[in-house]
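The data are quoted verbatim here:
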Amino acid sequence: MAKFTGLLRKQVGSIGDLTFKQVNGMTIVSEKITQMTNPRSDGQMRVRTRWNNIVAMYKGIRPKLKKGFESKPAGLSDFNMFMKMNMQKEPVYLTKQAVAGGACIAAPYQITQGSLPAIVITGTGNAAVTDIHLGVVSLSATTTIAQFAKAVVDHNPDYQYGDQISFFKVEQKTNAETGIPYCQFSAWKVVLDAADTETKLWDVVAREGFSTSDGCLAHSNANFVGAFGWVHSRKSNGKTLVSSQSLISANDTLLAQYQGDLAYNLARSSYGMGEDVYLTPNGEVSGETSGGGDNNGGGGNGGGGNDTL
Protein backbone atom coordinates (compact mmCIF):
# COMPACT_ATOMS: atom_id res chain seq x y z
CA MET A 1 0.00 0.00 0.00
CA ALA A 2 1.27 3.50 -0.80
CA LYS A 3 0.15 7.09 -0.28
CA PHE A 4 0.17 9.64 -3.09
CA THR A 5 -0.06 13.40 -3.48
CA GLY A 6 0.08 15.72 -6.48
CA LEU A 7 -0.78 14.08 -9.80
CA LEU A 8 -2.55 11.07 -8.27
CA ARG A 9 -4.10 12.90 -5.37
CA LYS A 10 -7.77 12.64 -6.40
CA GLN A 11 -7.89 9.29 -8.16
CA VAL A 12 -10.49 6.69 -7.24
CA GLY A 13 -11.47 3.31 -8.62
CA SER A 14 -9.36 0.53 -10.09
CA ILE A 15 -6.66 0.28 -12.75
CA GLY A 16 -5.49 -3.22 -13.54
CA ASP A 17 -4.63 -4.90 -10.24
CA LEU A 18 -4.48 -1.59 -8.32
CA THR A 19 -7.26 0.13 -6.39
CA PHE A 20 -7.40 3.85 -5.50
CA LYS A 21 -9.42 5.28 -2.60
CA GLN A 22 -9.61 8.54 -0.68
CA VAL A 23 -8.76 8.54 3.04
CA ASN A 24 -8.53 11.80 5.01
CA GLY A 25 -7.81 13.81 1.89
CA MET A 26 -5.06 11.47 0.68
CA THR A 27 -5.11 8.89 -2.09
CA ILE A 28 -4.27 5.36 -0.98
CA VAL A 29 -3.33 2.84 -3.63
CA SER A 30 -3.34 -0.87 -2.89
CA GLU A 31 -3.52 -4.14 -4.74
CA LYS A 32 -6.91 -5.66 -5.47
CA ILE A 33 -7.83 -8.40 -3.07
CA THR A 34 -7.98 -11.67 -4.99
CA GLN A 35 -7.38 -15.29 -4.18
CA MET A 36 -3.71 -14.65 -4.93
CA THR A 37 -2.58 -12.30 -2.17
CA ASN A 38 1.16 -12.77 -2.54
CA PRO A 39 2.54 -9.26 -3.31
CA ARG A 40 5.69 -10.90 -4.68
CA SER A 41 3.87 -12.87 -7.36
CA ASP A 42 4.88 -12.52 -10.97
CA GLY A 43 1.53 -10.99 -11.89
CA GLN A 44 1.69 -8.33 -9.20
CA MET A 45 5.27 -7.39 -10.06
CA ARG A 46 4.47 -7.09 -13.77
CA VAL A 47 1.83 -4.49 -12.89
CA ARG A 48 4.13 -2.62 -10.51
CA THR A 49 7.06 -2.44 -12.88
CA ARG A 50 5.13 -1.40 -15.98
CA TRP A 51 2.74 1.27 -14.74
CA ASN A 52 5.42 3.82 -13.74
CA ASN A 53 6.31 4.65 -17.34
CA ILE A 54 2.66 5.14 -18.25
CA VAL A 55 2.29 7.53 -15.32
CA ALA A 56 5.43 9.42 -16.37
CA MET A 57 4.12 9.80 -19.92
CA TYR A 58 0.72 10.98 -18.70
CA LYS A 59 2.27 13.46 -16.30
CA GLY A 60 4.27 15.01 -19.13
CA ILE A 61 1.53 15.12 -21.74
CA ARG A 62 -1.42 15.98 -19.48
CA PRO A 63 -1.11 19.81 -19.65
CA LYS A 64 -1.29 19.59 -23.44
CA LEU A 65 -4.04 17.00 -23.68
CA LYS A 66 -7.14 18.20 -21.86
CA LYS A 67 -10.47 16.65 -22.90
CA GLY A 68 -8.72 13.88 -24.78
CA PHE A 69 -11.24 11.21 -23.76
CA GLU A 70 -14.56 12.11 -25.26
CA SER A 71 -16.80 9.40 -23.82
CA LYS A 72 -15.18 8.44 -20.52
CA PRO A 73 -17.59 6.87 -17.99
CA ALA A 74 -18.85 8.99 -15.13
CA GLY A 75 -16.43 8.95 -12.21
CA LEU A 76 -13.36 8.22 -14.31
CA SER A 77 -10.72 10.90 -14.75
CA ASP A 78 -8.50 11.41 -17.79
CA PHE A 79 -5.74 9.76 -15.75
CA ASN A 80 -7.90 6.70 -15.14
CA MET A 81 -8.65 6.41 -18.85
CA PHE A 82 -5.03 6.88 -19.90
CA MET A 83 -3.88 4.20 -17.49
CA LYS A 84 -6.70 1.81 -18.37
CA MET A 85 -6.01 1.96 -22.11
CA ASN A 86 -2.24 1.85 -21.93
CA MET A 87 -1.90 -0.90 -19.35
CA GLN A 88 -3.01 -3.09 -22.27
CA LYS A 89 -0.13 -1.92 -24.50
CA GLU A 90 3.21 -3.72 -24.74
CA PRO A 91 4.83 -3.16 -21.33
CA VAL A 92 7.71 -0.80 -20.70
CA TYR A 93 9.49 -1.85 -17.50
CA LEU A 94 11.39 0.63 -15.32
CA THR A 95 13.67 -0.25 -12.40
CA LYS A 96 13.12 1.33 -9.03
CA GLN A 97 16.29 3.38 -9.49
CA ALA A 98 15.15 4.64 -12.90
CA VAL A 99 11.81 5.74 -11.48
CA ALA A 100 13.53 7.59 -8.64
CA GLY A 101 15.69 9.35 -11.23
CA GLY A 102 12.70 10.61 -13.21
CA ALA A 103 12.89 8.10 -16.05
CA CYS A 104 10.44 8.20 -18.93
CA ILE A 105 10.60 6.17 -22.15
CA ALA A 106 8.74 7.60 -25.16
CA ALA A 107 6.31 4.83 -26.12
CA PRO A 108 3.41 4.52 -28.60
CA TYR A 109 0.68 4.99 -26.00
CA GLN A 110 -2.90 5.90 -26.88
CA ILE A 111 -3.50 9.57 -26.06
CA THR A 112 -7.11 10.19 -27.17
CA GLN A 113 -10.39 8.33 -27.58
CA GLY A 114 -13.37 9.77 -29.39
CA SER A 115 -15.96 9.66 -32.15
CA LEU A 116 -14.17 11.43 -35.03
CA PRO A 117 -12.56 9.12 -37.62
CA ALA A 118 -9.00 8.27 -36.66
CA ILE A 119 -6.13 9.77 -38.62
CA VAL A 120 -4.69 6.77 -40.45
CA ILE A 121 -0.90 6.51 -40.63
CA THR A 122 1.17 4.80 -43.31
CA GLY A 123 4.90 4.34 -43.03
CA THR A 124 6.77 3.77 -39.78
CA GLY A 125 8.77 5.94 -37.40
CA ASN A 126 9.94 9.24 -38.85
CA ALA A 127 8.59 8.26 -42.27
CA ALA A 128 4.98 8.46 -41.00
CA VAL A 129 2.45 9.92 -43.44
CA THR A 130 -1.17 10.74 -42.51
CA ASP A 131 -4.26 10.18 -44.64
CA ILE A 132 -4.96 13.96 -44.56
CA HIS A 133 -4.78 14.80 -48.27
CA LEU A 134 -3.61 18.26 -49.35
CA GLY A 135 -4.03 18.04 -53.11
CA VAL A 136 -1.34 19.92 -55.00
CA VAL A 137 -0.48 22.14 -52.03
CA SER A 138 3.11 21.60 -50.87
CA LEU A 139 3.59 23.15 -47.44
CA SER A 140 6.35 25.74 -47.19
CA ALA A 141 7.39 28.80 -45.23
CA THR A 142 4.97 30.92 -47.28
CA THR A 143 1.88 28.72 -46.80
CA THR A 144 -0.82 30.58 -44.87
CA ILE A 145 -3.30 29.06 -42.45
CA ALA A 146 -6.08 29.86 -44.93
CA GLN A 147 -4.29 27.96 -47.71
CA PHE A 148 -3.67 24.97 -45.45
CA ALA A 149 -7.27 24.99 -44.20
CA LYS A 150 -8.69 25.08 -47.74
CA ALA A 151 -6.44 22.21 -48.83
CA VAL A 152 -7.58 20.07 -45.90
CA VAL A 153 -11.31 20.84 -46.19
CA ASP A 154 -11.39 20.51 -49.99
CA HIS A 155 -9.71 17.09 -50.03
CA ASN A 156 -10.97 15.42 -46.82
CA PRO A 157 -14.74 14.99 -46.30
CA ASP A 158 -14.32 14.36 -42.57
CA TYR A 159 -12.90 17.86 -41.99
CA GLN A 160 -14.64 21.22 -41.90
CA TYR A 161 -13.71 24.82 -41.22
CA GLY A 162 -13.35 25.44 -37.50
CA ASP A 163 -11.84 22.01 -36.87
CA GLN A 164 -8.42 21.75 -35.25
CA ILE A 165 -5.39 19.60 -36.04
CA SER A 166 -2.93 19.15 -33.19
CA PHE A 167 0.56 17.69 -33.28
CA PHE A 168 2.15 16.15 -30.17
CA LYS A 169 5.86 15.49 -29.79
CA VAL A 170 7.58 13.48 -27.05
CA GLU A 171 11.32 13.86 -27.51
CA GLN A 172 13.58 11.26 -25.94
CA LYS A 173 16.47 12.70 -23.92
CA THR A 174 19.14 11.30 -21.59
CA ASN A 175 20.37 12.91 -18.40
CA ALA A 176 24.07 13.59 -19.02
CA GLU A 177 25.00 13.03 -15.36
CA THR A 178 22.91 10.00 -14.43
CA GLY A 179 22.45 8.37 -17.82
CA ILE A 180 18.73 8.02 -17.08
CA PRO A 181 16.42 8.58 -20.09
CA TYR A 182 13.67 11.19 -19.79
CA CYS A 183 11.24 12.96 -22.12
CA GLN A 184 10.45 16.51 -23.21
CA PHE A 185 6.85 17.19 -24.26
CA SER A 186 5.65 19.70 -26.85
CA ALA A 187 2.42 20.35 -28.75
CA TRP A 188 1.12 22.65 -31.48
CA LYS A 189 -2.33 23.28 -32.91
CA VAL A 190 -3.91 24.98 -35.90
CA VAL A 191 -7.59 25.80 -36.42
CA LEU A 192 -8.80 25.45 -39.99
CA ASP A 193 -9.64 29.12 -40.57
CA ALA A 194 -10.45 30.16 -44.15
CA ALA A 195 -10.22 33.84 -43.22
CA ASP A 196 -6.67 33.81 -41.84
CA THR A 197 -4.79 34.80 -44.97
CA GLU A 198 -1.99 36.58 -43.10
CA THR A 199 -0.60 34.09 -40.56
CA LYS A 200 1.99 31.67 -41.90
CA LEU A 201 1.33 28.06 -40.93
CA TRP A 202 4.91 27.35 -39.83
CA ASP A 203 4.83 30.40 -37.56
CA VAL A 204 2.33 28.64 -35.28
CA VAL A 205 3.11 24.93 -35.69
CA ALA A 206 6.19 22.71 -35.88
CA ARG A 207 7.39 22.26 -39.44
CA GLU A 208 8.33 18.62 -38.72
CA GLY A 209 4.69 17.74 -38.02
CA PHE A 210 3.24 19.83 -40.84
CA SER A 211 5.15 18.80 -43.91
CA THR A 212 4.09 17.11 -47.14
CA SER A 213 4.72 13.65 -48.57
CA ASP A 214 2.89 12.16 -51.55
CA GLY A 215 0.32 14.94 -51.31
CA CYS A 216 -0.50 14.23 -47.65
CA LEU A 217 0.32 15.77 -44.28
CA ALA A 218 3.46 14.06 -42.97
CA HIS A 219 6.37 14.05 -40.53
CA SER A 220 9.68 15.36 -41.85
CA ASN A 221 12.40 15.16 -39.18
CA ALA A 222 14.43 12.09 -40.11
CA ASN A 223 16.71 12.47 -37.08
CA PHE A 224 13.99 12.73 -34.44
CA VAL A 225 14.07 10.24 -31.55
CA GLY A 226 10.94 9.78 -29.45
CA ALA A 227 7.23 9.56 -30.26
CA PHE A 228 4.73 11.84 -31.97
CA GLY A 229 1.21 11.98 -33.30
CA TRP A 230 -1.64 14.03 -34.74
CA VAL A 231 -5.17 14.50 -33.36
CA HIS A 232 -8.25 15.86 -35.14
CA SER A 233 -10.71 17.71 -32.88
CA ARG A 234 -13.96 19.65 -33.28
CA LYS A 235 -16.25 21.71 -31.07
CA SER A 236 -19.83 20.50 -31.41
CA ASN A 237 -22.78 21.59 -29.24
CA GLY A 238 -20.43 22.69 -26.49
CA LYS A 239 -18.57 19.38 -26.48
CA THR A 240 -15.07 18.59 -27.75
CA LEU A 241 -15.01 15.71 -30.22
CA VAL A 242 -11.69 13.99 -30.93
CA SER A 243 -10.22 11.26 -33.08
CA SER A 244 -8.86 8.16 -31.35
CA GLN A 245 -5.08 8.27 -31.72
CA SER A 246 -1.92 6.62 -30.50
CA LEU A 247 1.57 8.06 -30.70
CA ILE A 248 3.91 6.81 -33.43
CA SER A 249 7.21 5.45 -32.15
CA ALA A 250 10.50 6.74 -33.49
CA ASN A 251 12.30 5.33 -30.49
CA ASP A 252 12.60 1.63 -31.24
CA THR A 253 16.24 1.15 -30.21
CA LEU A 254 15.85 2.53 -26.68
CA LEU A 255 12.32 1.21 -26.30
CA ALA A 256 13.50 -2.34 -26.95
CA GLN A 257 15.90 -2.09 -24.01
CA TYR A 258 12.96 -1.56 -21.63
CA GLN A 259 10.66 -4.24 -23.03
CA GLY A 260 10.65 -8.02 -22.88
CA ASP A 261 11.64 -10.57 -20.26
CA LEU A 262 15.13 -9.25 -19.61
CA ALA A 263 13.85 -5.74 -18.88
CA TYR A 264 11.14 -7.15 -16.63
CA ASN A 265 13.57 -9.31 -14.65
CA LEU A 266 15.89 -6.33 -14.11
CA ALA A 267 12.98 -4.19 -12.94
CA ARG A 268 11.64 -6.91 -10.66
CA SER A 269 15.06 -7.50 -9.10
CA SER A 270 15.50 -3.78 -8.42
CA TYR A 271 12.63 -4.00 -5.92
CA GLY A 272 14.35 -6.78 -4.03
CA MET A 273 12.28 -9.41 -5.78
CA GLY A 274 13.34 -12.34 -7.86
CA GLU A 275 15.93 -14.05 -5.68
CA ASP A 276 15.59 -17.55 -4.17
CA VAL A 277 13.14 -18.81 -6.78
CA TYR A 278 15.35 -21.42 -8.43
CA LEU A 279 13.41 -24.46 -7.22
CA THR A 280 9.91 -23.02 -7.03
CA PRO A 281 7.84 -24.34 -9.94
CA ASN A 282 5.62 -21.25 -10.29
CA GLY A 283 8.47 -18.78 -9.83
CA GLU A 284 7.13 -17.45 -6.54
CA VAL A 285 8.58 -17.47 -3.06
CA SER A 286 6.20 -19.34 -0.79
CA GLY A 287 7.83 -18.22 2.43
CA GLU A 288 10.68 -16.17 3.85
CA THR A 289 13.59 -17.07 6.03
CA SER A 290 15.50 -14.83 8.33
CA GLY A 291 19.31 -14.56 8.28
CA GLY A 292 21.71 -17.34 8.76
CA GLY A 293 21.85 -20.71 7.15
CA ASP A 294 23.04 -24.22 7.73
CA ASN A 295 25.23 -26.80 6.11
CA ASN A 296 22.65 -27.23 3.39
CA GLY A 297 22.85 -23.60 2.37
CA GLY A 298 19.80 -21.63 3.55
CA GLY A 299 18.87 -18.13 4.31
CA GLY A 300 16.76 -15.94 2.08
CA ASN A 301 16.10 -12.34 1.17
CA GLY A 302 13.16 -10.34 2.35
CA GLY A 303 12.73 -6.94 0.78
CA GLY A 304 10.27 -5.37 -1.52
CA GLY A 305 9.09 -1.83 -1.87
CA ASN A 306 6.30 0.41 -3.06
CA ASP A 307 6.35 2.41 -6.27
CA THR A 308 6.92 6.05 -5.40
CA LEU A 309 6.04 8.70 -7.97
User: Anything to note?
Assistant: The chain has a mean pLDDT of 83. The longest helix spans residues 42-61. The longest strand covers residues 164-174.
